[in-house]
Amino acid sequence: MATTETGTGTGAQALGPGSDEDDAARTPNTPETARRVASLNRNEKVFHVVLAQQFDRQAIEQLCRTADMIRAIGHAREGAQFLRTLLSHRRAMLYFIQPSTRTFLSFTAACQVVGMPYNEVRDRSTSSEVKGESEDDTIRVLSQYFDLIIMRHPGEGFAEHVAHLLNDMPRTIPVINGGSGKDQHPTQALLDIYTLSRSFAAAPRPGGGDSKRGSERKVAGRYSPDLFVGKTIAFVGDLQRGRTVRSLAYLLCRYPGVRLLFVSPPELQIGEDILEYLRRYDISYETSDDLRSHIGDCDAVYMTRLQDEWDVAGESKKIDYDRFSLSEDMAKQFKPNMAILHPLPRRHELDQRLDVLPQAKYWDQVRNGMWMRAALIATIFNSDVAIRDHYHDHYTF
Ligand code: NCD
């Protein structure tokens, strides 16, 4: 039996899709969030990448376009060589002291795409922290050797703390949050939005035309304002402790007209802070514990695993997670253009037999992560302009 609750906003001024006004103007951000965002940005542009709330619609779409341009340019040898010149004079540190496969490797691949040499610390036992050095001092030291810190850390808020610490150093370098505790994973959310946008744009639309491969119109036209309007996106699984879900929900607030569905065991429901944020942005949502009854309505479904590493006393062992799994027998209910996403790693909540379906977008998601992270790094260092110029010189007919 489904437990359902709906929300449709609290009267924040909603601008229609396609409005030219910056969505920051309609922003119902609390003064506290606005203050946090301001301390992470420089000249109203993202500098440290810590919170998904830092990205407005325009910034997200610009990143998606840059990612598209990078993948097009990098296709040919000369293009890939051009990209590798962009940041060959900068160095990155990947400070990943929590397990990671994809995020770590996709950041290393992204650094390679833009020619940025990198180094890594993945195990605290190899650092001077075992001699009693504080983590703050480790970060201060890193800031003297490198031009960018990309980090994953088990502590909620630690990436934000690092940003403030770096702001106080004479040499301030940016930090990118590659996952902070149960809290946020903004770069995963960016690659998720990129994957959703590409997937929705690829679906046939009434009268929707297209353009030659590689043309400027193709890249620019992909992000039309109505792409998410009327779309139902379901988040399924451990929504309480999944940081990717939280960050993506924040980003989706920038897409008026989208409808969100949170399907989870009652004890693992999405946080009230996220629901409050959705109401501030007039995003309609529903919560439920019944995946089967909703699956046929979904335009995208975002599956997640049980995050039992955060259990205090094995409490999630009691949960019947099979009810929050996507199984092969549900496929007949899928809309033909539905997109299945998963941040990975997966367990049994996403049946491997679904991998062959056209709806399976999780391998695309992995690859999109590399392009999106390359776009993000390039943008932080203002190399997005050179990418745009190169693209227009070589790919505009
Ligand atoms: C996620 C993470 O680490 O938050 N994975 C990822 O970065 N792609 C999801 C997870 O661990 O379940």
Structure description:
With 397 residues, the protein is an alpha/beta fold. It has 2 domains: 31-184 and 368-386, Rossmann fold (3-Layer(aba) Sandwich); 186-366, Rossmann fold (3-Layer(aba) Sandwich). It is built from 12 helices and 12 strands. It has a 6-stranded mixed β-sheet, with helices on one face. A 4-stranded parallel β-sheet has the order 5-4-6-7, with helices on both faces. Strands 2-3 form a two-stranded antiparallel sheet. Helix 4 (102-113) links the parallel strand 4 and strand 5 (118-121). Helix 4 (102-113) crosses helix 11. The chain is globular, with a radius of gyration of 21 Å. The model is unreliable at 8-25 and 209-217 (pLDDT under 50). Bound molecules: N-carbamoyl-L-aspartate. N-carbamoyl-L-aspartate (NCD) is lined by residues 102-103, 179, 185, 188, 243-244, 305, 343-344.
